[in-house]
Amino acid sequence: MATQTVDATAEDIASMEIRGAATIARAAAEALAVQAEESDAADPEAFRAEMRGAARVLLDTRPTAVSLPNSLRFVLNGMAGESVEALRSSVERTVETFVADLESAQDRLGRIGANRLRDGDVIMTHCHSTDALATVEKAVEAGKHVEAYVKETRPRKQGHITARQLREMDVPVTLVVDNAAHRYLNDVDHVVVGADSIAADGSVINKIGTSGLAVSARDRGTPIMVAAQTLKLHPDTLTGHTVEIEMRDEDEVISSADREEIGDIEVRNPAFDVTPPRYVDAIVTERGQFPPESIVTLMRELYGDVDDQPWTEPSNRDAVSADDR
Ligand code: RUB
Fold first, then answer.
1. pTM, two decimal places
2. Would the CB of 197 count as within 6 Å of ligand 1?
3. Series of mean pLDDT values for 10-residue runs along the chain (325 residues)
4. Which helix (DSSP H) or strand (DSSP E) does residue 29 occupy?
5. Total structural domains in the chain?
6. Which domain holds residue 206?
7. Same-domain check for residues 65 and 176
8. Is the distance from CB of 159 to CB of 128 less than 8 angstroms?
9. Measured from the CB, is residue 158 less than 6 Å from ligand 1?
């Protein structure tokens, strides 16, 4: 298990040292285990308050990937016991369960997604998604030959990570700039992407550029598979909330020297976008593959009774739910 403190983990998530929805969720859960281990809380209430505070620090890092609140909720709701010692070990056990579930979910969805890929298929990827790569890995393990066009993914170039990991699987890779995607989609059998959040209507929230790629793929008749374990289902969207799209620093897009030379301009750097369900062929989860419009059924089954924010202090809870109404 990782041994990073909550503050170090929060800093790494905010700076994207730790990134990608599943990896963020795992790191956050593991940081809570470290907090529990190192806590010198005098009594159970102080311990619980400390854990809630730690969860809020992690929650404040990045707003879009629902895997982060889902993981914090799982750990905080798993806290049980009448003594600090009992609470501490319940957190450690819950985090172990969370990490094991996450790994087995990725393994299972990988095998399901791999069934969609045939021997000789060419895929196109966007950004870097461990869930998406799990489908390729399982296809390769099953003896299928798969090749990949990898989109660079400006501004952070997560495509380089994808390219490296695909090469480690011996998958032939062609790296293209984002603007070349449409040009090469004729040669592609599947677009395979991950998700940071999935909304109740089946919309997929993923790295900026996913929606443009999906529209292009639909135009070319290329199917789009979204590989997303159920940790990516966004329970708040069941009650009409929308998913916040993170806006990141302008420096990721343009250097201050270039900007000065150009003159007075606005710069926008949204990290994610929303792909409507009509552009998505299948959402592949560890529970099977779903047409996007039917994902709400699974969301209700898994998260239907989730309306709690266990990181909120009990004294603020009434105010929060009143605000919510
Ligand atoms: C990462 C990204 C990934 C999803 C899914 O964005 O959009 O496609 O998080 O990843 P960023 P995974 O680099 O800004 O975090 O399948 O690994 O959860």
1. 0.96
2. no
3. 86 98 98 98 98 98 98 97 98 98 98 98 98 98 98 98 98 98 97 98 98 97 98 96 97 96 97 98 98 97 84 76 44
4. helix 21-38
5. 2
6. 116-303
7. no
8. yes
9. yes
